[in-house]
Amino acid sequence: MGRQLDRVSARPIPNGNASAQPNLSLVFPTPASGARDQSLRLIVRPDIWGAQARIHLSNVFGTTPVTFDGVFVGVQMSGAALLPGTNRPVAFHGKSAISIAPGDATWSDPITLAPGSAAQMTGRKLAVSFHIAGVSGPMTWHAKALTTSYLSGPASGSKGAEEGEASFPFSTTSWYFLDAVDMMAPAATHAIVAFGDSITDGTASTLNGDDRWPDVLSRRVHAAYGNRFSVLNAGIGGNQVVGPATYTAATPFSGGPSALERLDRDVLSLSAVAAVIWLEGINDFSRNGNATAEAVEAGMKEGVARMRAKIPGIRIIGATVTSAVGYTAATPEQEQKRQILNKFIRTSGLFDAVADFDKATLDPQTGGLRAEFIPESTTGGAGDKLHPNRLGYLAMGMAVDLNSLKPKPVR
Fold this sequence. Notes:
Helices cover 19% and strands 25% of the residues. It is an alpha+beta fold. The chain folds into two domains: 12-181; 186-405, 3-Layer(aba) Sandwich (Rossmann fold). The strands form four sheets. Strands 3, 5, 6, 7, 8, 11, 13 and 14 form an eight-stranded antiparallel beta sheet that branches. Strands 1, 4, 9, 10 and 16 form a five-stranded antiparallel beta sheet that branches. The chain has a five-stranded parallel beta sheet with strand order 18-17-19-20-21, sandwiched between helices. A hairpin with a 2-residue loop joins strand 5 (66-78) and strand 6 (81-82). It is globular and about 55 Å long.
């Protein structure tokens, strides 16, 4: 098997930062109880396509075992409906059901996808369906999927085998339990990981628009290099480099475990990683973080050292942190720390290259984001002056030097 497509780093519901989320009180009446005898149809967009895939189901932040059965992978037609004849059953160690212990996760067996060339399937989305047998307890989720998925109601039973949409009347903008999709790819294909917080996760981009900055970068990479690279989004809204100091399912934090704590799972465990673009720090300097610039610099040094030790030849691109000036919760101290960190990223020599997202988005007159980058692209309105919109993410995705992503020779 080949390359990760998307790493759905997560937390236990309801801790997280969803965007444009419908009211789910009828679907999950008690968040602590999670799902109850119901089916989920989660929509994901592979960055590259192959003949086979695997899915990764996670109960990492759960507190009770979760049993999955009726698991299928098909090709989305529209909404919750699938292209006829594309829905394939999924097995785990040859069995159609699996129970995953709290704190654990598992890969499926390889799934032979519906026939179709990579060119024919590019741009299509997979529908990953599964049934929760019994009560799940707290659900490991990725709040800000910014992709519409579909849910059946409680006590509705196993519906994943169905190709139609009638059994999935509810929608959500989050992913649950599905942690990653692994697509078969040629051995020469390499992964580029976008590692970051909500600005990598895509807050204020367009719901179902695939216009986060990693999406923009992906289209540029494929135009230049075909499928020699796959771009993976490992962003979590609210994530910090060094905080929180501790993270457990019993004491969750809306931004998830720190970047250093999740580095092994969300970067170092992935296959064929050639480059990482690391954009974080603004949340460390917020009122919830209140870290010093020196602490974040030290955290980045530690993270870079671990990546280089684990993956010889990896290219690590430091991304300058975009402005939060004008954001409701911003402080002068936060801006001062951001400037110090950006100078470190640009001049320390720690990184192989710099993606200057600050320069690409900054209005020198105000010190904040450029005015045209502020209005929100999904919910509308004036924007929060922290998260760029579709136009801002386009500028960021275009600011990455593609030459900086090529693997270094390994001696």
